[in-house]
# Entry
Amino acid sequence: MSAVATYKLQTIPQRGHSRESLVARPHPVLIPDGEYVALCTHVHHDQHSRNYGERVYLDFQIYEGDYQGKVVRMFLRPSVFPTSNFYRSWSIARGGPPRSRNTKMSPRIFRGKVFRILTTTVRPKHRVTGEDGKARSGPPLPEAFWYSKVACLLNLEATNETPVFVTDSSRKPFSSSDLIEGRVGRWELGDGSKRESELAVRDGTTVTTHYNQPAEEGISLSAPSPHGDIEKEKQILRERGLL
# Structure
């Protein structure tokens, strides 16, 4: 008996602090339901939640109005399906839905951005253990335990990402000197000893001249056939004194 009693008196110290050292966390705030402009200040990705599985928690600080500075939280369950709240919220933070099925949907995309949010009131209930030993929802807790949460993101107000500016293409992509010297749309034809070049002019006409020889104004020849009727083009140029 004495040995058993001695064994029971030897307790194993538990991890953590003693009850006297517990510090209470602040209770979530309660604000009227409605739309607010808020900044996402914190992103927490809990991949091993014991009670809820994988979760993403977003903290939003009210940016303006009577409740400026108040922090409300958004609870998201990561999902790749377009109908989920996480997918839609992520798409709003990104500026649009992902265009590729291989897009990585990182929760860090929310941090540092300003959103227009919609809040709702959470009314917790007591947890009652039934006769079968399972815990079930009981009557609601007093109003002092109610708190606000972010129901959804309405739209993106401001982003911390560097914008990408798209410059309009020039209306005059080629300089006049390039057009005069014939460096636009030129490709060389070779027959071994002599080479000819073809100039594609903006008005649709095609001029075939000797390589490095300026084209004469007013000369307009038909484009060569797909089989390359080069000898015929040479004959025309000889008659005009260009060859």
Residues 62 and 68 are 5 Å apart (CA to CA). The domain at 27-158 is CATH 2.40.50 (OB fold (Dihydrolipoamide Acetyltransferase, E2P)). The chain has four helices and ten strands. The helical segments are 2-9, 85-94, 176-181, 230-239.
